[in-house]
Specification:
458 residues; alpha/beta; OB fold (Dihydrolipoamide Acetyltransferase, E2P); Rossmann fold; 3 domains; eight-stranded mixed β-sheet; seven-stranded mixed β-sheet; 22 strands; 25% helix; globular
């Protein structure tokens, strides 16, 4: 195959996270946003060394697996990839992806003996407790849009007023905000020209308490009276309850939600959520799993794996990449002491507040990079929990973790490809996988979480 060539073929499978393997008369290539069983046409954009990558041109025949689609934005919005598949089929796809990745480092026999399969999300629809919507337009110089990026586009925004992975409160808030600013002809921030006012709308809603936090993110290029905006939100008939409305200023060139300063327009700058019997205070930028009920499944699995390895002794536990301290606090009752390390200072402060809120006095949280902080901790761990960001553990930090030679570890991963890369290092340094499982925290998307228990070979 050559670059620019157009080929037709059938999607044999989809590898993590969204790599459709298309096989045709000319050979095979990798194509994003395709589903197993579809017949597609694609244009080769990269070829060499027996591998080819293509861009999807057209779905010529639907997959026999496609039987439903409750979202009118599917295929246009870039958020979901499996909306036309029954949930059971999505779980089968993700389960197969994790199995293949684990087999690449463990071998088929070992994978079959330790991998316990995938657990689904308790709620497939309306499960998200956080959304970051972007302001823009769907077409150049079109009306104001508020929603998600159009699939394959950095600039075009689709107003996802019927999005199915959030509940009705999110949809009401989105439409209210879009209509309010469209009526006032307020400008949005142009990502290419770096001009304009409206940037993002952040909405967080607790699944257990129903408390809602809304943050409008703008530049400082214009000034507007935002009290009428807050009043419009407070008039909405919602199932939940708005406890805070914020105005956050962000003049960064990067297209990310961050704060150069925040004003409280109404209420407070935090809300409360509950998870497995613990209470958590969450602010605008606090890390918290975006699927509350799915997180309970994930952490229950992690806690089971930890319990199966702990042997009942009250130990020093390291919770590395601890975020707001969720896992650390779940381990507090069983451990002598839990030490959490997290690079985001705001998350560390939240973890300390949450530990006090839950009456836990054996949790210590340290702000800093795991790579740099480990050398300064006096108490050595008996057990290590790893929950790193998507890129996995930094190789130098991984070496320091290995140097502790702890008997037991649990690795929680939101990116299986990073997990298997790090697993290979553990296996080369005297560890074995004793249990593994996965949890679908993100229905209809290409993401999946994994939990692996490791033990040092004696």
């Amino acid at each position: 195959m050559k670059k620019g060539q157009v080929m037709e073929g059938v999607v044999e499978r989809v590898d993590f996270p969204n790599k459709g393997i298309v096989t045709g008369e000319e050979g095979s290539c990798v194509v994003k946003n395709a589903l197993p069983g579809q017949k597609v046409s694609c244009r080769i954009r990269k070829a060499g060394r027996g591998k080819a990558e293509g861009s999807l041109l057209e779905v010529l025949e639907k997959s026999p697996l496609e039987t439903e689609n409750r979202c009118p934005h599917f295929g246009i919005c870039g958020g979901c990839v499996y909306m036309s598949l029954p949930y059971e089929e999505q779980l089968r796809i993700k389960d197969g992806q994790v199995r293949r990745l684990l087999t690449s480092v463990l071998g088929e026999q070992k994978t079959e003996s330790v991998y316990e399969g995938i657990k689904g999300s308790p709620e497939a629809y309306g499960y998200r407790n956080k959304m970051e919507f972007s302001f823009g337009d769907e077409v150049k110089d079109g009306p104001l849009a508020l929603g998600m990026h159009r699939r394959g586009s950095f600039y075009d925004i689709v107003t996802v007023e019927e999005c199915q992975i959030v509940d009705e409160d999110y949809r009401k808030i989105l439409c209210c905000v879009r209509d309010f600013f469209a009526a006032g002809e307020v400008s949005f921030y142009h990502r290419l020209r770096h001009e304009g006012y409206l940037r993002h709308l952040l909405v967080r809603k607790a699944a257990k308490t129903g408390e809602i936090l809304v943050a409008l993110v703008t530049t400082t290029q214009e000034e507007h009276d935002l009290q009428p905006f807050a009043e419009a939100l407070l008039k909405l008939d919602l199932d939940g309850r708005i406890v805070g409305i914020l105005h956050t200023e962000n003049d960064s060139v990067a297209d990310v939600v961050r704060s150069d300063g925040t004003e409280v327009l109404y209420g407070q700058d935090y809300f409360y959520e509950e998870l497995l019997g613990l209470k958590f205070r969450i602010s605008q930028f606090s890390f918290f799993q975006t699927n509350t009920y799915g997180a309970e499944v994930l952490y229950a699995m992690a806690r089971e794996y930890i319990g199966a390895l702990s042997g009942g002794k009250r130990q020093v536990v390291y919770d590395l990449y601890s975020g707001t301290g969720t896992i650390a606090q779940m381990m507090a009752d069983a451990a002598g002491k839990v030490i959490g390390v997290e690079i985001v200072e705001e998350a560390v402060e939240a973890a300390r507040d949450n530990a006090r809120l839950n009456g836990l006095d054996n949790c210590e949280f340290i702000a800093g990079d795991v790579l740099e902080v480990l050398d300064g901790i006096g108490e050595k761990p008996d057990f290590i929990i790893l929950d790193p960001p998507r890129d996995g553990v930094h190789p130098k930090a991984l070496k320091k973790i290995l140097d502790y030679r702890v008997e037991r570890l649990v690795y929680i991963s939101c990116k299986p490809t990073s997990l298997v890369r790090d697993l290979k290092v553990f296996l080369e340094n005297g560890y074995e996988v004793v249990r593994a499982g996965s949890v679908d925290q993100f229905p209809f998307t290409g993401n999946v979480e994994c939990v692996v228990a490791l033990s040092r070979i004696k």
